Structure formats: structure tokens, C-alpha cells
What does this fold into?
Amino acid sequence: MGAKIIDGKAIADEIRAELAKELEGLKTKGIEPGIATLLVGDNFGARMYRGAVEKFCAEMGFNYREETHPADISEADVIRIVESLNADAKVSGILPLRPFPEHISDSAVINSISVDKDIDCFHPFNMGKLALGEPTFPPATPSACIELMERYMKGEGIDPKDGFEGAEICVVGHSNIVGKPVSFLCLNRNASTTTVHVFTSMKGNLEKHTTAADYVVVAAGFPNLIGSEQVKEGAVVIDVGINRVIVCPECGTYNRAKKDPCKKCGADLSEAEGKTVGDANFDELVGKVKAITPVPGGVGSVTNMMLAKNTLRAARLLAGA
Ligand code: NAP
It folds into this structure.
């Protein structure tokens, strides 16, 4: 029997409908959720994300405030802008879009954001609450992983409380943005949680941990890191990775750039197609695991909805509702 493909887009649509009802209720009370982005300089990724947030706010019916400033603005001025966002009743959530230019300290900016408007859980206070098991704003991508696991469990007739308690969960990656918070969220649900990272791989111990897991959450930014050798039969794989690769037309190997020959067969890649893939070898795993999230169409699809959920929570907090 083939694996169940956990459909992130369908789950995102379900959550969107749930949130639309909640938003309608808030608007009848005069509460209007909104997001502000803070962008300094012109980093490509940060600019793309800013545009995506603006579009997303329009789709969700949220207010949107843009704060985009040239790279030579001073740190003191950026902090004054954050303070104005903290004081703006139309802004429920603030998203700092990093990287900032070198003269602006990430932590100085993050620490100046009101903890009640920190909708993606960047502030150390909110990360501390997450570690203590009392998150106000569980961060969006890690929450999307949990939401996908919970909805998968429900679909299988498993109460998520029972599904998590004592489950062997292996999180691959320990970044502050994804891996670590996913591990906290799993631990908070009483899963037996193992976190592995590049040093685990360097010691040759990755498979020892991943093959023992009922659930493997992979967030490494490394295409094909998890294949059939790395999981046990019947595991569930949640793939967070988003990697842009160049596919060799001769041997199918994933490469990083078109300018070099294929790292495996040496074929010319100048005309080769690009593709977005995760960290799991989907084609290989689909014959072995019980369920898997695709890339695209998995975790990434649900992430925005988790951000929307936190925005509604922030709007309620701000209104004291
Ligand atoms: P990151 O900061 O680069 O962290 C990657 C983590 O993976 C690190 O902890 C690293 O370990 C570990 N790692 C790297 N190579 C490994 C290997 N060979 N074996 C075991 N562990 C390894 O990246 P990130 O921000 O967490 O993002 C991870 C991936 O998720 C990226 O592909 C990113 O694009 C994607 N992402 C997706 C979403 C979404 O919404 N779907 C959101 C955010 C990120 P060390 O720290 O020890 O080096």
C-alpha cells in the first residue's frame, strides 16, 4: 500500500475557513487584525517575503502597514519605528524581515518589539514561554508541522493527545527558527523527542536516530537527506525543507547551480530545469512510509495560516477580548 500524501493545501483551506469565521466574529466587535512588516535595505528574500505578506493580508482581510527603509537608516531610528508600531492600534502583529544591514543588531530590534505583537515568536520572552510549554505565539512553521501531524492523526482516528504522548519523534535540524521550536512543541505534547543536526550526521549517527522514529520532521535545507535508508517502515515524514535545485537531464541528480557540470555525471546543465524540492526523497519514501508531506504543497502551505492564527490571537490580546 502506498503512503498517504498529507495535503497541506487542503488542510490550509480548512484552517482558512475556520479563521474566516473567527475573523468575522472579531470584526463584529470592532476588532480589526493587522500585520506590519519592517524591512531595512533591499535583500531579495526579505523583499519577496514582504510582498507575500502584503498579498496574504489582502486575502485574509487584515490591515497591512508597510515600513520599508533604506539600508543607511540608523539603529536608533529603526527602534523608534518599532515603538511606533507597538503603539499603533491597527497593528496587531509585527514581522521583522531579516537580514538587516550589519550595523543594525537583530537582537536590539527583536527585543524592542512588544511581546504581545511578536506573532512569529522571535522575542526571547516568547521563546522562553515556548520552552516552558506556555507559548502565546507558537512560531508559524513549527506550528504548521504540529498542525499537519495532528490533522493526520485525527484522519487516522487517533486522538492527537494519545498520538503524541510517548511517540518517538526525531527532528532533523536545530535552528532557532524551525528545528528547536518544533522539538519544544513535540516535548510539550509529551513525545519522546530526539533532535539531530549536522554534527549527528558527521559522527555517522543520523540513521540510528531517524530509523527509530515514528515521526521524522526534517528541516535541514539539504535535498534528499532523508531517503528510505533513513526511516523505518510505516514512519510518518514531515518535510519542512525548501530547496531550489537544478535537475541533471542525463542522470536526474540534483545540483545547486547551472553554471557547473553535473556533480555526478559531468553533463552540461546550462539548459537544465530548476525544481523546488524538500529534504526528503519523496519518490523513494512514498513506497516505505505510512504518510508524507509533499514539497511544495505541504508545510509551506500551512505556515501562513498559523501566522494568521497568531495575528487573530494578537488582535484579541490588544483589544483585551
Ligand atoms: P538552517 O538555519 O540552515 O538550519 C538547518 C539545520 O539543519 C541546522 O540545525 C543544521 O545543523 C541541520 N543540518 C544541515 N545539514 C544537515 C545534515 N546533513 N544532517 C543533519 N542535520 C543537518 O535552516 P532553517 O531556517 O531551519 O530551514 C531549514 C529548511 O526549512 C530550509 O530548507 C528552509 O528553506 C526551510 N524552511 C521552510 C519553511 C516553510 O514554511 N516550509 C519555513 C522556514 C524554513 P547545524 O546547525 O548543526 O549546522
User: Anything to note?
Assistant: Residues 140-242+278-299 form a domain with the Rossmann fold fold (CATH 3.40.50.720). The mean pLDDT is 97. The radius of gyration is 21 Å.
